[in-house]
Structure formats: C-alpha cells, structure tokens
Amino acid sequence: MNQAPRRQPKHRDAQRGRQDKPAAERTAPLLDRSVKRRNGERPDERVPVVLESKASDGYALIDSGDGEKLERYGPYRIVRPDAQALWPRTLPAKDWQGADAIFTGDTDEDGMGRWRFPKTPLGETWPMRLMDVDFHGRFTAFRHVGVFPEQMAHWDWMQAQIRAAKRPLKVLNLFGYTGVASLIAAAAGAEVTHVDASKKAIGWARENQALAKLDSAPIRWICDDAMKFIAREEKRGNTYDIILTDPPKFGRGPSGEIWQLFDHLPLMLDICRDILSPDARGLVLTAYSIRASFFSIHELMRETMRGAGGVVESGELILRESEGGRALSTSLFSRWVPA
Ligand SMILES: C[S@@+](CC[C@H](N)C(=O)[O-])C[C@H]1O[C@@H](n2cnc3c(N)ncnc32)[C@H](O)[C@@H]1O
After folding, report:
1. What is the DSSP letter of 277?
2. What is the pTM of this model?
C-alpha cells in the first residue's frame, strides 16, 4: 500500500524546540527573507463563514457517528475514523457493515492503520469523477483516499473565477497532492502551477491528468519545497491570479526541508501576497488537524493583506450527511478576495 503524502512523522522535539525561539529566528535559516511589516488598513472581514460541499454522483457523506464516517466515493462505500463524529449514527449497523472498504486503526489523523475489504478485495485505485473531472480514488496508508471532497467548496469558487475572467488566469496550487484542484482549474481554462514535495504524489497527479484527458492543458508539475518555490518565484517576479495553499501541520520538502505550520505559515502567506498579480482574484488557505481557531488564520490573513483592500472571509469547511443532515467539520479556512 502506498504511503499517503499528507501524513508525515510527528516531530515532537522540533515542536518543543521551536517554542524557545522567537518567530523571526525560527524562520530566518529557512530563507533570506522574513515577514514584512505591512501598512494600510486591514481588509474588511466576513466571519464566521461555513462552506459546505454538496453531495454529488461522485461523492457523498452518507452518515457519521460513534467516531466514524460512512462515505461514498464513486462506486464504493467507505468507512473511516473521524474523531469529530461524537453523535450516534443514523443508519442501522447493517448499512455500515455493508461497506466496501473499512479503515481501522488509530483514531488520531496521523495514526497508522490498514484497509479491510469486507466483501471482496479491491485494487489500490478506482475511477472517480468530481466536478466533471475524472481521476483515481486511491486507498493509501494513513486513511486517505486521494482526494479531500470538502475542498469542492473552494474549487467551485475557483472555477467560477476562472470562467468569468476574460483572460486565462494563472493559478498556483501549493501542497497540491494528487492534483484534483489543479485539474479542475485547468479544465476551467487556467494556466496552472502545481507544487508538491512528494514525487509519488506528482506521479499520481500526472496519472490523473491523463485520466481527465487534460494532457495538453497548461499545467506545470513541480516537485519542490513549497516555501523554496514561492521564494524563488518572488525573486523572479512571477505572479499568480489565484493561489491555493493547503499546508499540512508538518511536512518535508524533497531535500528534507522542514515545514512546520505554526512556524512557517506567516512567512508563507507573506510571500504569497507578494506573488499575487495586480489583478488577483484570491488567496485561499485551508488548514487541517491543527489545534487553533479559524480566527488565528483569519487575523493572520488580514494582517498579511493590509493595504490590499478586499475582504477576508474565514471559517470552516464542512460536509453535510445525506442521511442525518448533520454537519461534519473537516478543516479551517481563510481566503482573501478583492472587493
Ligand atoms: C494537505 S495535502 C494537500 C491536499 C490537496 N490540496 C487536496 O485538497 O487534495 C498535503 C500535501 O503537502 C505535501 N507537502 C508536505 N510538505 C511539503 C513541502 N515542504 N513542500 C511542498 N509540499 C509538501 C505532501 O506531499 C502532500 O501531498
């Protein structure tokens, strides 16, 4: 079974060590640039915003409860742990037991575990289609299935921006994983730059490009450390109209560069702001499995975007059960958009 790139080993020592040093020192060795002091008014704010991704032919959150969720990914019903599902299940046990794949293991999102196929052994991948783009669902270690459907709320927004623009928008997808967002952007007419540290994830993304029949679409697949890449783009004077960034809590670049969300996010957003084009349509940040309120990324985004006008809207990405109608929170987000 393949290693899911989202999950990286925990580095408690690194986390402990970082609290001893001020932020400027912690980020200094990373790049020859620190967070700029911005002037001007903070953008307007819209909080809290709850973005909900609707069920479709390709995906539905069917039910959740007792620390697990039951979802439909294309042809398969899949059960995975979800610590946030504190409530009882709506559907009877037989519906859950009838699932095609069940992930058992540590309830911690970083935890190891394994896939069990109660009916018939399944291959590693299967055909999926979301927002008219074909790609592979994929049973990976660490419970992930090659796509995060709650992101569709962002992808809908992005698709609308790209379609409404009277020129091909330039989209940068940082920590782009299996490339579904990049493919949806390209299918809508954008010129896409996709960055991920994992060679394996880039390979999966290229496979998905072929499945989506977007081989000739203008997508640059870049295997690099996200911070290093944007720092280079800033020096080169390259800019983007839309930047999506979905950093993990902890990650590593291809040469072992360490990514720690709480240490590096301010500098990352700061550089992202400087590589937004003069007519940019948005900067979108999502954060999973961090112990923080959406206000922490909201206020960071507003400080980062001081003097840029527009509005920062922040809150949670949720999935709504098709059976019980309850909302399952998946992640925090903050996005800046021009007025
Ligand atoms: C959170 S997932 C992205 C999910 C994706 N945006 C989606 O919605 O499908 C995290 C990705 O970050 C990548 N990553 C981790 N550390 C990185 C780094 N330092 N630079 C670039 N990518 C990194 C991992 O390889 C993984 O693919």
Report:
1. -
2. 0.91
Q: Domain residues for 125?
A: 1-339
Distance 306 CA to ligand 1 centre (A): 27
Ligand 1 atom with minimal separation from the 257 CA: 19
Q: Return the CATH number at 102.
A: 3.40.50.150
Residue located nearest, by CA, to atom 6 of ligand 1? 176
Q: Where do we find the tokens 């980020």?
A: 27
> Within 13 Å of residue 109, how many CA atoms lie on the same side as its CB?
17
Q: Compare 31 and 5 and report the one with higher pLDDT.
A: 31
Residues found in the chain: 339
251 lines ligand 1 (CB under 6 A): yes
Which atom in ligand 1 lies closest to the alpha carbon of residue 244?
6
245 lines ligand 1 (CB under 6 A): no
CA dihedral for 213, 215, 219, 222, sign (positive or negative):
positive
Number of domains comprising the chain: 1
Distance in angstroms (rounded) separating the CA atoms of residues 316 and 123: 33
What integer is the mean pLDDT of 195-199? 98
Residue 196 beta carbon below 6 angstroms from any ligand 1 atom: yes
pLDDT tens per residue across span 200-259? 999 999 999 999 999 999 999 999 999 999 999 999 999 999 999 999 999 999 999 999
